[in-house]
């Protein structure tokens, strides 16, 4: 199958969601910059083209102005009002102001300070996983470890006490429906309810921190006094904490499951990680390339441009297929092989340019720490049933990943 339209629509099928790589490879070979009139977007599948668009300030994220044209009535949805006003969907000085406030907490130094929390949380959750599998039966890795670990870490960073974290997984999952290119009325309903609930929670947390500051991100953002330093309004502060929470655990939870699954289906690579603790970081990086958690992102041309020899008009929508870019053989030789010792690779899994993911270093650190501990703790870890992929076009994740520790 080489017809570009057929290739595009094949990724929306269950088979295409499970394994989109042949379709993306064929599209990259036949039409690497492909305009689909029905979807009104240019699909990019080559690494160089994807990287060029992500790093070019002339390509901007779809924000509120775009919503006013393309999503009539969007302001009636709390979830849309939050999402399209957030750091993810703003550019220029507005984006830079909020990003600057978060840089310290998520910098390399900030991540190093969080490592004791990561290790303690990982050990505690692996204890629970050991208990759940002690009699030889399977347990769902995603439920017991994959989601709870990043929720615990990002909650600690923000200042959310353990007793308040119970519903975060469900709320984050529901809010994440906004990342899908097509949203049903049920998607909107659940996303709206999640955003309303989380806004209410963080408004309460902010009130508490105003009265009793602590050593956490909520208190640090409240302590910013000068407008010139980027001080946030009350609404901005609540929504920024909401975004840090959801963005800080959803993608990382996906990465954890994908990394464990990749290693268990490549026993030789698993042995390398078990024998060489330093190889865990390589396994994380290779997972990001080989099974990219966020499959695509979009940009708008703010002026006429050219990508891969194809003219893009002003206002043209561009879909950057990160999954395809990360398996481009021009950038990564033998791209379908999973190799934790792969050298010299650059991945676009956390985007690039002005919107490079602020939490990339923390996500990498969490995943590497978990893999080191997991392979040492459970040398006979094995798949114990058919994994269930999340039904998503934009996200690559496991809804369920049953594992046994006595395989």
TrEMBL record:
Gene Ontology MF: a single term = iron ion binding
InterPro entries for the chain: Cyt_P450, Cyt_P450_B, Cyt_P450_CS, Cyt_P450_sf
The UniProt keyword set, sorted, is: Heme, Iron, Metal-binding, Monooxygenase, Oxidoreductase
Pfam families on file = p450
Q: Which family does it belong to?
A: Belongs to the cytochrome P450 family.
Record carries keyword Heme: yes
| Protein name, per record | Cytochrome P450
User: Carries keyword Cell membrane?
Assistant: no
């Amino acid at each position: 199958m080489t017809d570009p339209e057929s290739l595009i629509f094949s990724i929306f099928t269950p088979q295409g969601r499970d394994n989109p790589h042949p379709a993306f490879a064929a599209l990259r070979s036949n039409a690497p910059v492909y305009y689909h009139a029905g979807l009104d977007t240019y699909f990019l599948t080559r690494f160089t083209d994807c990287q060029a668009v992500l790093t070019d300030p002339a390509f901007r994220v779809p924000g509120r102005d775009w919503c006013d044209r393309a999503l009539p009535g969007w302001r009636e949805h709390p979830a849309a009002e939050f999402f399209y006003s957030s750091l993810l969907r703003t550019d220029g000085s507005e984006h830079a102001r909020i990003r600057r406030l978060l840089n310290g907490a998520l910098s390399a130094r900030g991540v190093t300070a969080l490592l004791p929390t990561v290790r303690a949380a990982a050990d505690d959750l692996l204890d629970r996983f050991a208990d759940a599998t002690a009699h030889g039966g399977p347990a769902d890795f995603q439920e017991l470890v994959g989601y709870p670990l990043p929720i615990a870490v990002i909650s600690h960073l923000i200042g959310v006490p353990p007793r308040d974290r119970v519903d975060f997984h469900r709320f984050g999952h529901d809010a994440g429906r906004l990342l899908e290119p097509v949203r049903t009325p049920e998607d909107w309903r659940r996303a709206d309810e999640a955003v309303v609930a989380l806004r209410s929670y963080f408004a309460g947390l902010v009130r508490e921190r105003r009265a009793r500051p602590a050593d956490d991100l909520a208190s640090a953002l409240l302590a910013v006094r000068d407008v010139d330093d980027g001080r946030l309004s009350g609404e901005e502060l609540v929504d920024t904490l909401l975004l840090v929470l959801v963005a800080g655990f959803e993608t990382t939870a996906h990465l954890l499951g994908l990394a464990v699954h990749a290693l268990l289906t490549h026993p030789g690579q698993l042995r390398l990680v078990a024998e060489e603790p330093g190889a865990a970081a390589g396994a994380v990086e290779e997972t990001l390339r080989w099974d990219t958690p966020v499959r695509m992102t979009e940009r708008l041309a703010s002026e006429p441009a050219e990508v891969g020899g194809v003219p893009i008009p002003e206002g043209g929508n561009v879909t950057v297929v990160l999954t395809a870019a990360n398996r481009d053989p021009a950038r990564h030789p033998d791209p379908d092989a999973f190799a934790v010792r792969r050298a010299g690779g650059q991945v676009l899994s956390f985007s690039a340019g002005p919107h490079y993911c602020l939490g990339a270093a923390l996500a990498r650190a969490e995943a590497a720490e978990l893999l080191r501990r997991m392979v040492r703790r459970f040398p006979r870890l094995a798949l114990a049933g058919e994994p269930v992929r999340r039904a998503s076009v934009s996200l690559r994740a496991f809804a369920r990943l049953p594992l046994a520790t006595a395989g």
